[in-house]
Amino acid sequence: MSKHILVFLVSSILVVGCMGGKGQGHGNGNGNGGGLKLKYYDNLCRSVSVEKTVRDIVWSKVAADPTMAAKLLRLHYHDCFVRGCDGSILLDPTQNTTTEKTAGPNRSISGYEVIDEIKTKLEASCPEIVSCADIVALAARDAVSFQFRREMWPVFTGRKDGTISLASEVGGNLPSANANFTTLLAQFGTKGLSLNDLVTLSGAHTIGISHCTLVARRLYNFTGAGDADPSLDQTYAKTLRKLCPNPVNSATAIEMDPNSSRSFDSNYYRALNQHKGLFVSDATLLTNRQSATIAKVLENQMVFFANFARSMVKMGAVEVLTGGQGEVRKNCRVINGQ
Ligand code: HEM
Ligand SMILES: *[C@@H]1O[C@H](CO)[C@@H](O)[C@H](O)[C@H]1NC(C)=O
Ligand SMILES: *[C@@H]1O[C@H](CO)[C@@H](O)[C@H](O)[C@H]1NC(C)=O
Ligand SMILES: *[C@@H]1O[C@H](CO)[C@@H](O)[C@H](O)[C@H]1NC(C)=O
Ligand SMILES: *[C@@H]1O[C@H](CO)[C@@H](O)[C@H](O)[C@H]1NC(C)=O
Ligand SMILES: *[C@@H]1O[C@H](CO)[C@@H](O)[C@H](O)[C@H]1NC(C)=O
């Protein structure tokens, strides 16, 4: 198939995906959604450019530590999937509550200090205006964008911060690395995200790391009979077994895109289509015909970048608090008045 036909194909899939998605019901299915706007802060903070402040700090952090890009991207995803993009992931546990960040699937989530540093700087120049949820959304965009020195997607702003964060809500909302296609599609569906968004956002795994524990089952005991997952490329499985000897060490990290885990590119899909996706949740994207077709199309980097931008805007609008809802926290780790 020629590239033009492929582009046309994915556009058609996209249109169908948007119209058939559940997004409308949540008020976040199209465009910015949820009452967010571009440049929301431009007239609210006169003495400082909010977006430039975020970008400058994020870029300096990513320049100093390239692994920070993946961390900040994942932080935004984890925020949005539990109670919407409301900064609830940032809240520290209190005497009364175990917050989202303390839950099991938080595994190795970090980047909190970068958000704190941005917040402190903005509070000094434009107090009680810029929400932590917006800082997380902007930081994710800027973290990925550093590699390209240009904005990879628009970030609509105006989110307010939530006042509820419960560890008990993480498990059911965040897909597991062993989730099958049906479960993933359902979990994305409850956020108003489509099959196309699922395949496209999974491409985030082109950067960053995971840990041996999350693939141990695929390597050593897939059905419980001491076997490997037959859907995993055998050569790649061998490489992974070398990196993660049995019994696996929970501290050992492995790259999710072994060829270019620090480069945001479409190699995730090239690897996936060669049956070298790391998790069951990656590999399972090939088990559905429509999803597999999209994964093929997204090997084209220009198409991937365009679609990723669109899906990030959608994800960034999931269950956002706007208008009179929520608050602007003074400290991203605690709700106001505590
Ligand atoms: C489709 C469902 C998804 C599942 C099951 C999933 C699961 C995981 C798991 C298990 C890890 C490794 C954690 C660790 O070992 O420390 C991980 C890492 C990561 N995920 Fe996902 N994820 C999903 C979707 C997403 C989405 C939508 C994004 C962002 C848009 C994302 C961004 C990342 C990034 C950037 C990392 C690397 C983090 C780092 O290097 O610190 N993931 N994911
Ligand atoms: C913690 O629990 C106590 C007793 O139930 C209650 O009085 C207090 O308001 C709670 N604090 C917060 C911050 O929720
Ligand atoms: C993440 O979850 C684990 C397991 O529940 C917990 O031990 C750890 O402290 C949590 N991490 C953070 C940053 O809260
Ligand atoms: C997918 O996983 C869910 C939850 O573990 C399970 O109930 C369901 O039967 C699985 N579906 C398929 C098609 O394997
Ligand atoms: C493999 O899985 C089975 C069934 O879940 C379990 O009983 C067994 O202990 C596992 N073996 C190893 C080595 O983890
Ligand atoms: C890494 O690159 C090599 C050479 O281009 C290719 O053969 C291999 O399939 C790639 N592996 C992955 C996991 O992308």
Automatic annotation (TrEMBL):
Q: Where in the cell is it found?
A: Secreted
Q: Which reaction does it catalyse?
A: 2 a phenolic donor + H2O2 = 2 a phenolic radical donor + 2 H2O
Top-level lineage group: Eukaryota
Domain Plant heme peroxidase family profile residue range list: 35-336
Question: Any idea which positions bind Ca(2+) 1?
Answer: 79, 82, 84, 86, 88, 100
- A biological process from GO: response to oxidative stress
Residues where heme b binds: 205
A single GO molecular-function term is:
lactoperoxidase activity
- Where is the signal peptide, in residue numbers? 1-20
Q: Where is the site described as Transition state stabilizer found in this chain?
A: 74
Listed EC numbers: 1.11.1.7
Could you tell me which PROSITE patterns the record lists for this protein? PEROXIDASE_1, PEROXIDASE_4, PROKAR_LIPOPROTEIN
- Please tell me where Ca(2+) 2 binds in this chain: 206, 257, 265
Quote the record's cofactor note. Answer: Binds 2 calcium ions per subunit.
Q: What does this protein do?
A: Removal of H(2)O(2), oxidation of toxic reductants, biosynthesis and degradation of lignin, suberization, auxin catabolism, response to environmental stresses such as wounding, pathogen attack and oxidative stress. These functions might be dependent on each isozyme/isoform in each plant tissue.
Matching entries from PANTHER family are given as: PEROXIDASE 25-RELATED
Q: Which family, according to the similarity comment?
A: Belongs to the peroxidase family. Classical plant (class III) peroxidase subfamily.
Specify the protein name.
Peroxidase
Species name for this entry?
Tagetes erecta
